[in-house]
Design a protein that fits this description.
Elements (H helix, E strand, L loop, with lengths): L1 H13 L7 H30 L1 H5 L3 E6 L5 H10 L2 E16 L2 E12 L10 E3 L4 H4 L2 E2 L2 E6 L1 H7 L6 E4 L2 E11 L13 E5 L16 E7 L6 H11 L6 E4 L5 H39 L1 H9 L4 H33 L1 H7 L10 H25 L5 H5 L12 H22 L2 H32 L7 H12 L1 H39 L3 E6 L4 H9 L4 E17 L2 E2 H5 L9 E5 L9 E4 L11 E5 H7 L6 E6 L2 E11 L12 E3 L1 H4 L5 E8 L1 H14 L4 E4 H40 L1 H13 L4 H38 L8 H21 L2 H5 L2 H7 L2
Parallel strand pairs: 3-9, 6-8, 15-20, 17-19
Antiparallel strand pairs: 1-10, 1-11, 2-3, 2-7, 2-10, 4-8, 5-6, 6-9, 7-8, 12-21, 12-22, 13-14, 13-15, 13-18, 13-21, 16-19, 17-20, 18-19
Helix pairs in contact: 1-10, 2-8, 2-10, 2-12, 2-23, 8-12, 8-17, 8-23, 10-12, 12-14, 14-15, 15-16, 15-17, 15-25, 16-25, 17-23, 17-25, 17-26, 23-26, 24-28, 25-26
């Protein structure tokens, strides 16, 4: 019976309009919309990758080999299972041209192809040409294609010539679109495409040089990809082949999108929790304005359950409206802006109504609304009718009944569990949610501390009316102080953490690394070229250090006789091929943490020195055996030592090193790092690449710029997410200011009666807002710095320093936001007539 009555009462009250719930709806709508939009974009990209997986990969399946071409047996197997086969080689080189101002050089990522390329999709060329014509040999010079950026950098136009190694090519067209580019992964240089047959005289694909071959298979429509993968690996178990297929045509992009999307959903969830504070404040303010109605219902015989259900149904209906509006925005905005988004994406995306991210956002919205509305609603049960008539909603118990506390706790656990399940990163989710709850607790304690400080310092402001009334209001107004500190503080905490992380990453890349990093990496140096290479550098006073080492690439296939992934899981060391080196004597910079180095003349069974930190992460111990596939040959060695390897300096570091006798007979080249003064970099590059055309030089500065560019896009995305969280906090702040207008009107009336001027009252309001904003900003700064330090230390494993410009901006931003919000709602209290206000309160 009470449910029917409550429903009727709730429906009648809703006829009064939504004016009291504008902030409530805005907070809920914005939070749900942010999560729905991020989820929709992520799903659109994932579906695009799935739909275009074969085109992105360049075939239905791909077999990849390191440092070698497929053997005759391997090619026979591929030709037997595929309808068409295409061979692609991929490596880095220096593109060289003789311009009017001298010789120009630029790093390029070279793709050499056969006549069957591309199996799927089409190349976009300017001028438009068939690829066979573009790569054909004319007058003894083969054709080549270049990305626009590389051609512009070298000052080339179609018809000009350039060199790769010792081979001259003619630029026949500009490469506008490459169908399989997104599946190629990260590259340090723009693309050049040539025919593999044209590289025979270039000296670039010799034994031991760093290149990869990829064999794309166009399979029959009914091909079983799982069965073919198992057959390939079983037929060639020790070949070191890597299998990819159209189900995941661009795995690097897919992983990046998944992780960035998960992170942004967590940022959006932070915004939703900030909005939840606003929802709670709006419900509390609404119920405070309904004290007379509730009191009347209680005196007419309405029981506690009926009162609770009346407002629960009313607020529940409004919550569903806010969630629906958020879902409409979150689903509609990506579709509306899809042309703009697609232009900035390197991969295809399918923008449509995707149910799953909308259901996920709706679940988050429902749980958040329940968690933050149950508490203030439940407190109405403990308020007596007489107290309600005295307009004292806050006179009840601080905590609601135990059943409501248990319900809120279960809902919070369900929210955390849903976030962990949907994000794909449970550990990151738990840390994020833990950080949010810790920040909420810190902010609540900060609000209580701010009230106590205000109460104690109020006695020191005698004779200063504005200061005294401002501090008195902060000390006595628990609801307003807590609401402002929580809403603004949590939003600023998220923004502060992201600002500090972003600043530290930029500092690490743009300032710290160049001071310690080499000027160049040189790769593909032949053994007989090393004396001449060192001779050029050893006599240069501008060169401070040169490090060199033999370089091979290998795939760790087994550990202690078991498949490597069974032992090490998905650790990055076993996910692909890794750099492998050898040394007779222990290098001067090698510091062993356990075990012993082999003797210089050791010729026994292969021994391995492994990176200590990675060994600990993989669970390795001294005496373990490890099998490494190098150039199709499997070498099993015993781990006899662990050593420190610091990859953060961008210098030379190998996870795995073996004794010289184990590898010296394998075809290989050398790599070198050169540390030189900036003014000496250009002459070094010119001299070495002229003397040794096959050598590839990688500028560390250019690599840093490329990484900075990628990080810039990530930082922009995270800043947008943090800005949405802050916007929600500002909306909550405005709601808190609006909800406090009634109290300020009465306060202003009392002050006017006691002789205070309008200027004094306005200054009091401004001081109150500024103190609360500064307090929220300072607490947010501490919480944000702590969160950023944890991310940099435990996740990024990098050094951390406070970025003070960002820190000061957070505090000033908090102060400015609260001051403006307070002044925005100062006019009604200043304009109120004391007599009318005081008579209404009698």
């Amino acid at each position: 019976m009470s449910f029917a009555i409550a429903g009727r009462l709730a429906r009648r009250e809703l006829r009064g309009g939504l004016r009291s719930f504008r902030i409530f709806l805005a907070c809920l709508t914005l939070g749900v919309a942010a999560i729905a939009a991020v989820g929709s974009v992520r799903t659109a990209i994932e579906e695009g990758l799935a739909r275009e997986g074969a085109a992105l990969l360049g075939g239905d399946a791909e077999l990849e080999f390191t440092y070698r071409f497929a053997t005759a047996a391997e090619r026979d197997w591929m030709e037997a299972v595929a309808e068409r086969l295409s061979e692609v080689a991929d490596f880095r080189s220096m593109a060289v041209t003789d311009g009017p101002s001298g010789t120009e050089r630029a790093l390029t990522q070279v793709k050499s192809v056969d006549d069957a390329y591309p199996l799927l999709g089409t190349l976009g060329l300017d001028p438009p040409l068939p690829i066979t014509e573009a790569l054909a040999t004319t007058d003894g010079i083969p054709g080549g294609l270049m990305a626009p950026l590389l051609a512009d950098r070298l000052g080339l136009v179609p018809g000009d010539t350039f060199r790769l190694g010792t081979q001259t090519f003619r630029l026949s067209a500009i490469l506008v679109r490459e169908p399989d580019d997104a599946g190629a992964g990260f590259s340090l240089g723009p693309r050049t495409i040539v025919a593999t047959s044209a590289l025979d005289a270039s000296g670039l694909l010799g034994p031991g040089t760093l290149f990869e071959t990829k064999y794309r298979l166009d399979l029959p429509p009914d091909a079983d990809l799982d069965a073919l993968e198992r057959e390939a690996k079983a037929t060639f178990p020790d070949s070191g082949l890597r299998w990819r297929d159209s189900r995941n045509g661009a795995p690097g992009v897919a992983r990046f999108v998944e992780r960035l999307g998960s992170f942004l959903v967590l940022v959006g969830l932070s915004g939703l929790i900030v909005g939840g504070v606003g929802v709670s404040s709006a419900v509390r303010a609404f119920l405070a304005g309904k004290t007379g109605v509730i009191a009347t219902l209680r005196t007419l015989g309405a029981d506690r359950r009926t009162i609770f259900l009346t407002y629960f149904l009313q607020i529940g209906a409004l919550s569903l409206l806010g969630i629906a509006l958020g879902l409409i925005l979150g689903a509609g905005l990506p579709i509306a802006f899809s042309p703009l988004i697609e232009d900035r994406l390197p991969v295809p995306a399918v923008f449509a109504l995707h149910p799953r991210p909308l259901m996920e956002a709706a679940l988050y919205g429902v749980l958040t609304a329940l968690i933050f509305t149950l508490w203030p609603l439940a407190r109405t049960e403990d308020i007596r009718a007489a107290a309600l008539f005295r307009d004292s909603l806050g006179a009840g118990k601080l905590l609601p009944a135990r059943r409501y506390l248990v319900t809120v706790a279960l809902l919070a656990a369900l929210l955390v569990g849903a976030a962990a399940a949907f994000s794909g990163s449970p550990l990151l989710t738990l840390w994020t949610v833990g950080g949010l709850f810790a920040a909420l607790l810190i902010l609540v304690l900060a609000a209580l501390g701010l009230r106590r400080v205000a109460a104690r310092t109020k006695v020191l402001t005698r004779g200063r009316t504005a200061w005294r009334t401002a501090l008195g209001a902060i000390a006595g107004s628990g609801e307003e102080t807590t609401s402002v500190v929580l809403s603004l503080g949590l939003g600023l905490s998220v923004l502060a953490a992201i600002g500090q992380i972003d600043g530290n990453l930029q500092t690490a890349i743009s300032q710290d690394l160049p001071e310690r990093a080499p000027s160049y990496f040189f790769v593909d140096i032949q053994r007989d070229q090393m004396p001449g290479f060192r001779e050029r550098l050893d006599g240069d006073a501008a060169v401070s250090k040169v490090e060199s080492a033999p370089m091979l690439r290998g795939v760790i296939t087994r550990i202690n006789g078991r498949p490597a992934r069974e032992v090490a899981g998905d650790h990055w060391v076993v996910r692909g091929d890794r750099g492998v080196t050898y040394s007779a004597a222990k290098p001067d910079n090698a510091r062993l943490t356990a075990g012993a180095w082999w003797p210089e003349d050791y010729t026994g069974d292969p021994q391995i020195s492994f990176a200590a930190e990675e060994a600990e992460e993989m669970g390795l111990s001294l005496g373990d055996t490890m099998t490494v596939s190098i150039l199709g040959r499997e070498i099993t060695g015993t781990i006899t030592s662990f050593r420190e390897v610091d990859f953060s300096t961008a210098g030379m570091g190998f996870v795995l090193s073996m004794n010289e006798a184990a590898l010296v007979g394998a075809p290989h080249t050398f790599i070198a790092t050169v540390y030189a003064d900036p003014e000496a970099e250009a002459p070094i590059l010119r001299d070495l690449t002229t003397a040794f055309p096959n050598i590839t030089a990688i500028s560390v500065r250019d690599a840093i710029d490329r990484v900075t560019e990628v990080l810039g896009g990530i930082s922009a995305a995270t800043r947008y997410g943090a800005a949405a969280t802050l916007l929600t906090g500002v909306l909550v702040l405005i709601g808190a200011a609006a909800a406090g207008v009634r109290a300020r009107v009465y306060e202003a009336a009392v002050l006017k009666t006691l002789g205070a001027s309008r200027a004094t009252i306005l200054l009091s309001f401004a001081l109150r807002s500024a103190i609360l904003g500064a307090g929220a900003g300072l607490v947010a700064l501490v919480a944000g710095i702590a969160g950023a330090w944890a991310v940099m230390h435990f996740v990024m494993e990098a050094s951390f320093a406070v970025i003070w410009p960002n820190a000061v901006a957070i505090v000033l931003g908090g102060l400015l936001c609260t001051t403006l919000a307070g002044l925005l709602f100062a006019l009604p209290p200043l304009a109120a007539r004391p007599a009318r206000v005081l008579r209404a309160r009698e």
